[in-house]
Design goal:
Strand order of the largest sheet: 1-2
Number of helices: 4
Distance between the termini: 57 Å
Helix content: 55-70%
Strand content: 5-15%
Largest sheet: 2 strands, antiparallel
Structural class: mainly alpha
Length: 107
């Protein structure tokens, strides 16, 4: 083991740092992506089907596609949502776009 470390220590360190860097970059990209979409808070009696229909004018997915997207991107299964849950839905967050436009126009 010591011989392996002596011969390849730089490569091992470089590999570990590369993996760590990729992890950090992917984490930051994921955060930026989730800010792109609207985040809602679930109220008592809400269902994913109802939410899909309420926002149907703002997305081009069928209700089933909408529900699958929400489940996949929020780590839920079987449409199990509870009051107080915050979910990201596949609707563009206009407040992000508005603030970016205001920032660009002010420069």
């Amino acid at each position: 083991m010591k011989k392996l470390w002596k011969q390849h220590s730089y490569a091992i360190i470089l590999f570990v740092l590369s993996i760590f860097t990729v992890f950090i970059i992917m984490n930051q990209l994921g955060d930026a992506e989730s800010e792109k979409y609207l985040k809602i808070t679930i109220n008592d009696g809400d269902t994913l089907w109802q939410i899909a229909e309420d926002f149907s004018a703002e997305h081009k997915l069928s209700p089933i596609e909408f529900i699958k997207w929400v489940e996949s991107n929020n780590g839920i299964a079987g449409e199990r949502i509870f009051p107080g849950d915050e979910l990201v839905i596949p609707v563009i967050n206009n407040s992000v776009n508005t603030s970016q436009k205001e920032l660009a126009s002010s420069q």
